[in-house]
Specification:
Elements (H helix, E strand, L loop, with lengths): L13 H14 L12 H8 L3 H13 L3 E4 L3 E4 L8 E7 L4 H12 L5 E7 L4 H11 L5 E4 L7 H5 L7 E5 L10 E3 L2 H11 L1 H4 L4 E5 L7 H14 L2 E5 L11 E5 L2 H13 L9 E5 L13 E5 L1 H14 L4 E3 L2 E4 L5
Parallel strand pairs: 3-4, 3-5, 5-6, 6-7, 7-13, 8-9, 8-10, 10-11, 11-12
Antiparallel strand pairs: 1-2, 12-14
Helix pairs in contact: 1-3, 2-3, 4-11, 7-9
Length: 332
């Protein structure tokens, strides 16, 4: 059975003819899963085309998940789902309710012929490196939540620069890559200015900041605000059984720490919004009702997902800042 047939002077690039030939053979059932394809050299010699042309066709099919290769043996059919035109590698840091909103919005705004494979690195640099190394070359596009881990930028730069996008937060080393991100430094500074008339009653601002998980912009933005507006501040990395002092305002990115602070304050019989204050991060439905309402600084994660989907489908290389806002409630 002849799998590939290239016509001369048809006005269709030869690599596209190769792709279409393989797709047609799969479509009519003449090529099945694990069936071997003609080698790059064979295609090149038979049709007097460059190896690069044949390799380009196979590479595109590989990225779409239609074929796979075994080093030293050749190329084989991996999937008969030829309708998939894009395969996206999506690497999240972790899954929580607001990241789920982002993910669902992203999927809902993509075309149906795009497949998304989602992975999680849970702030582990070795996991990031392994996932990227294993998947490099197998997808048409790569979307990465990089976090602030030291060395992560160098790993991301091993991916094809024309196919890589950054999501949620970026850094100086990755600023040339397209994506949708938050400017945490400016966001916290501007949001605190908006509620400064309520902050003024507190004697000290405390940020509970995880060096591993939280963007550095949070810390810098808070410092800038406190210096500019003459507030005493403290940055702690762990909250564990500390006393909740009367007159302190806590800025809490982690929901786990949010629960710990509220539980500790209840034991001390302190009233939220009166004896102490809280500004949380990332809006969730529960924060509207817990303790009569928790003040949050949050970006619109659904909008972030929509913006990213539009960028992927149009192959644009924009750098879009998804701004945050503050929702003032009883906790402040």
């Amino acid at each position: 059975m002849k799998i590939i047939d290239i016509k001369i002077n048809q006005g269709i690039p030869k690599y596209k003819q190769i792709i279409r030939c393989i797709e047609k053979k799969i479509e009519v059932g003449q090529l099945t899963i694990d069936q071997k394809l003609p080698s790059i050299n064979k295609v090149s010699i038979e049709f007097s085309i460059s190896r690069d042309t044949a390799l380009l066709a196979y590479d595109i099919l590989k990225k779409r998940g239609i074929i796979y290769s075994i080093l030293g043996k050749g190329y084989y059919v991996k999937s008969t789902e030829i309708r998939i035109k894009e395969r996206i590698f999506l690497l999240f840091d972790e899954l929580n309710s607001f990241k789920e909103d982002l993910y669902n919005s992203f999927l809902n705004h993509l075309e149906k012929n795009i497949q998304v494979d989602i992975y999680f690195h849970n702030f582990n640099l070795k996991v990031i490196e392994k996932l990227i190394n294993d998947c490099n070359g197998n997808y048409t596009k790569y979307i990465i939540m990089p976090t602030n881990l030291v060395g992560v930028a160098q790993i991301i730069k091993t991916l094809p620069v024309d196919s890589t996008y950054i999501l949620d937060q970026t850094c100086e080393e990755l600023k040339s890559l397209p994506g949708v991100y938050q400017n945490h430094l400016n966001d916290i500074y501007n949001c605190l200015i908006k509620c400064e008339s309520k902050i003024i009653k507190y004697k000290k601002i405390i940020l509970i900041y995880s060096e591993l998980k939280e963007p550095e912009g949070l810390k810098i933005g808070l410092k800038n605000f406190c210096v500019d507006f003459n507030y005493e501040y403290e940055i702690i990395t762990i909250f564990k059984d500390q006393m909740i002092e009367n007159g302190n305002l806590y800025i809490i990115p982690s929901d786990r720490d949010l629960v710990k602070v509220i539980e500790k304050a209840k034991l001390e019989k302190l009233i939220l919004g009166v004896n102490y204050g809280i500004i949380s991060y990332n809006e969730t439905p529960l924060k509207k009702i817990v303790e009569n309402g928790i003040t949050t600084i949050s970006t619109n994660f659904e909008a972030m997902g929509e913006q990213l989907a539009k960028m992927i489908m149009t192959s644009k290389k924009d750098q879009i800042q998804n701004e945050s806002d503050i929702i003032i409630r009883n906790s402040l």
